[in-house]
Amino acid sequence: MANKIFKIYVQTFSFLVFFLIVSSLCRVGFIIHSGIINKGLNIAENNIFPFLDFLNTILAGLRYDGRIIGSLTLIFLGLYTIFIIQNKTKFILLCIYSFTISFFIITATVVNDTYFFIYNDTFNIILLGAVFDDQTAIFQTALNSGYSVPLKLFFIMIFTIFTTYLYAKLYKNIEKKQFKSNTKLNVFTGIFLAYLIPFITSSTLNLQGGDLNYIVTLPENNFLKKATPGAIHDLDRVNRAYNKIKGESFEKYAGGGESIANVLKKYFNHINIQDNISMLMEKEVSFDNHKQADHIFLIIMESLSEYHLSHEFEESGISKSMYKLINSENGLKVPIFIQNGYGTIETLDLMVTGLYSTYFPVSEMIGKISCFDSSTGKIFKDLGYDTSFYYFGSSAWRKVGSYVLSQGFNQSYAMENMKNKTRSTWGIYDNEGFDFIYDDIKNHKGKTFNMILTTSNHPPYDINTKSYNIDTQKIENFLDEKYPKNKRYGGINSQILSVTAYSIESVVDFVEKTYTKYPKSLFIITGDHFDRIHPSPVRDIYTSTSIPLIMYGYGVKDIKLKYAAASHKDIVPTIVEMNAPLGFKYHSFGDSFITYDNNSLIDYERIAIGAQSIANGRFIYNGENIEYFNGAKQKKNDINIAKEYINKRNDGRAISWYIVNKGYEINSP
User: Fold this and answer.
1) Lowest model confidence (mean pLDDT) among 167-181, 442-456, 538-552
2) What average pLDDT does the segment 306-328 reach?
3) What does the alpha-carbon distance between residue 603 and residue 109 come to, in Å, rounded to a whole number?
4) What does each C-alpha distance from 109 to 155, 293, 348 come to in angstroms?
5) Dihedral sign, CA of 480, 482, 485, 488?
6) CA angle 411-413-418, nearest 5°?
7) Could you tell me the pLDDT band of residue 200, with boundaries at 50, 70 and 90?
8) b/e per residue, 226-261, with b = 16+ CB within 10 A?
């Protein structure tokens, strides 16, 4: 009995290793054919093969493959154990199983290779043409477009049969062997496999799994970066995007029976609607500022919330350095600022494309969408800026690296570009990411526009803050006094707020030293979304939907606030108003919230539109409840106006969905 149990272990281990090797060889084949033969690696200039990046691709690729092969190994173990007595049936069944796996892995790789040849990318959302487009036409195109489909099908079958033959031979050789085992060896081997398979499947030492985009370090080479996850992982991404797309529609936001023309009339208040949405979004700079910053830094901080900078939390000390920026002559803070995204990707969609964010996976549609007229990278490129995007996490997350390049940014940098930097779970430590940017600015000629997305202020908050002079004890005393543990929301503690303080200190340190070196620099600092962990279990609407907006640096002392309330979609128009010449035209759903008119008074009635709420200088409304600020009195028409702007938000989302999926031309009456 002990010998049979040990044989089960050996067969299971052999199956796992065999198909990990098969997956790796398929990845190598893809690199050889698409990368070297078809020049995807683009090494013609220096003729040097990036061997270290190649090695990184293979090792990192094993972690992606492990999630699939590890799960398939558990199925193998179940089949082998169930049919352990029926040797002939078991052999036939496992051969069919290995044939199916081999066929799927090899087919996915070969098709991915062809896909790369056509689109210069691994599987992305364009693949959904096979679902949404004319399947017959696609099939005919594949057969008659010089892609050698019949030959590739032949090779798929040959390689699949050969792989199955090799596995069958390995399986039979193990079955023939007479293993001598005992209870002690079986227990040891069983424990080893019981840890190995979950380890391979989760790709982490702690068996908890996690997002591989942050666990795995990708190579720097762009082609190898795309090759690392593998065809099956990319297919899974496309499938997830498809499931999201199925639930999204124009009608979801506009309401049943509404046409795009009617929605546009409501949103833009036009009676004689024009036939192009882009024209309706066009804006023109109204002030001749005669100033233009040399360097613009739009810093989107992970989970920076308005309450972090509130008067109440001033006692905790977490934002003391940020207050210095706000209170200086070169600083400014918008009183009421609300978020335009539920999470990071929704906010990023708006900040990158200029369109209202929906759950539609815009970042997954690279290759199918062109650069939008309202895209931030395009606008600042038109203004003569060298545009760069910096993300302290992995560029594989939501394909953000390729996404921003498709939307007008000249360069995209992520943690794989930031060598020898300390990493937490979600990416490069904020202070070290900013160090990279500070050193990188000199490599760009002329004026620069830089969008920056940080990562450190994020669960599990695994940043060692002791090295950054953060007074954790002061923070703990503040929490204990203001929010006793028996009444406090359980998800917050002094470590979390210490990481928040560290993240803020990192930003302020970068701002101060960069402004000293480049005095014609403008900094805009905001958060991506409310951090969801305010210490009070009961939060008002403003607390749970607001983030701060701080401006600092060149030209800030010359401006005044025009509105008391704003949102993410108003950031880019504000920066444009400060840095573009009179008459410069651009496209946006937002409005500048600053003015150069010294006689202008702040408008407290103008409504800012956010993702979960709308607000002005007196109240905030989330579609159900209305709350007033600082003792403001309710006016007769407040609730009707609030509902009108909630509907306008939905119209903006419907228009944005239409632009992404159908373009700017209006096709319906």
Assistant:
1) 167-181
2) 95
3) 59
4) 12, 48, 31
5) negative
6) 145
7) confident
8) bbbbbbbbbbbbbeebbeebeebebebbbeeebebe
pLDDT in the model for residue 207: 42
The alpha helices in 129-259, defined as continuous H runs, are 129-132, 135-143, 149-176, 183-202, 212-215, 222-227, 231-246, 250-254
The pLDDT, as a whole number, for residue 194 is 80
Q: How far apart are CA 527 and CA 338, in angstroms?
A: 10
Q: pLDDT higher for 256 or 25?
A: 25
Lowest-confidence range among 37-41, 104-108, 206-210?
206-210
Sign, CA torsion 65/71/77/83: negative
Q: Is pLDDT at 328 greater than 80 in this prediction?
A: yes
Q: Which residues pair with 314 in a beta bridge?
A: none
Q: Starting from the edge strand earliest in sequence, which strands make up the sheet with 619-621, in order?
A: 608-609, 614-615, 619-621, 626-628
Contact 335, 617 (CB under 8 A): yes
- With vertex at residue 571, the alpha carbon angle to CA 565 and CA 577, rounded to the nearest 5 degrees, is 105
pLDDT digits (tens, 9 = 90+) for 452-461: 999 999 888 8
523 half-sphere exposure, CB direction, 13 A CA radius: 26
Alpha-carbon gap, residue 260 to 342, rounded angstroms? 25
DSSP states of 153-177: HHHHHHHHHHHHHHHHHHHHHHHHS
The three-class DSSP label of residue 390 is strand
Angle formed at CA 191 by CA 189 and CA 194, multiple of 5 degrees: 110
User: Can you say how many angstroms the Cα of residue 453 is from the centroid of all Cα atoms in its chain?
Assistant: 10
End-to-end CA distance of the chain: 77
Model confidence at 149: pLDDT above 90: no
Of the CA atoms within 13 Å of residue 360, those in its CB half-sphere come to 24
pTM: 0.79
Residue 21 has what pLDDT? Answer: 96
DSSP-assigned letter for residue 363 = G
Q: Residue 652 is inside which H or E element, if any?
A: helix 638-662
Q: Which residue has the tokens 């703990």?
A: 476
Which residue has tokens 């969609």? Answer: 349
Q: Is the pLDDT of residue 2 over 70?
A: no
CA distance 284 to 51: 51
Q: What radius of gyration, in Å, describes the C-alpha atoms of the chain?
A: 28
pLDDT at 253 over 80: yes
Tell me, what amino acid is at 140? Q
17 vs 34: CA distance, rounded Å: 26
The C-alpha atoms of residue 437 and residue 161 are separated, in whole angstroms, by: 51
